[in-house]
Specification:
178 residues, alpha+beta, Alpha-Beta Plaits, 4 helices, 10 strands, globular
């Protein structure tokens, strides 16, 4: 009998889409650092990262603009093990969590979709519960997978078509290939 790591499903891999965002301490570099950290996750392969987009921040007060992207990975990590790995990347990039939602942050990593699974518990909701309301998520996701179906909501292309994207600006990402 062989031992397997906790949180690893050796039977199959899942395609996972991860939202990446930053608006502090060099947001473009923060997104690049997160991309590099995703590429180093165990039992995981970084397949592609979308172009980067800049957009005004959601949330309280005046904040710097965000830089956002979406990465697609193949992983054998189970959803909660992947979430723990993403939270560790955030900690390693000095993400501070406070009592107020939508505060400025060095990095934010969100599991947008995990294969075709629907997950809803106290730690993780997949598909991400607000992704269909956010052009800064849907546009980079569209760049990777326009025909992707979001369970219960429809295709990424259809969802994006319902939102204004006038505030999104593509960031020069010529050095951002994985």
């Amino acid at each position: 009998m062989t031992a397997t790591a906790v949180g690893v499903d050796t039977a199959f891999t899942s395609t996972v889409y991860i939202g990446i965002g930053s608006n502090l301490d060099g947001p473009v570099q923060q997104v690049r650092s997160a991309r590099d950290a995703l590429a180093e996750l165990p039992n995981t392969q970084l397949l592609e990262i979308s172009p980067l987009y800049s957009n005004p921040a959601l949330g309280p007060g005046q904040q710097p603009d965000y830089v956002n992207a979406v990465a697609v990975i193949e992983t054998r990590l189970e959803p909660h093990a992947l979430l723990d790995a993403l939270l560790l990347i955030e900690v390693n990039q000095d993400r501070l969590r406070g009592p107020i939602r939508w505060q400025p942050r060095t990095i934010d990593l969100d599991v947008l979709m995990y294969g075709d699974r629907t997950i809803g518990d106290r730690r993780l909701t997949v598909p991400h519960p607000r992704m269909h309301e956010r052009a800064f998520v849907l546009k980079p996701l569209f760049d990777l997978a326009p025909d992707l179906d979001v369970p219960g909501l429809g295709s990424v292309a259809t969802l994006l078509g319902r939102l204004p994207d006038g505030s999104l600006r593509r960031v020069d990402d010529s050095r951002d290939a994985p």
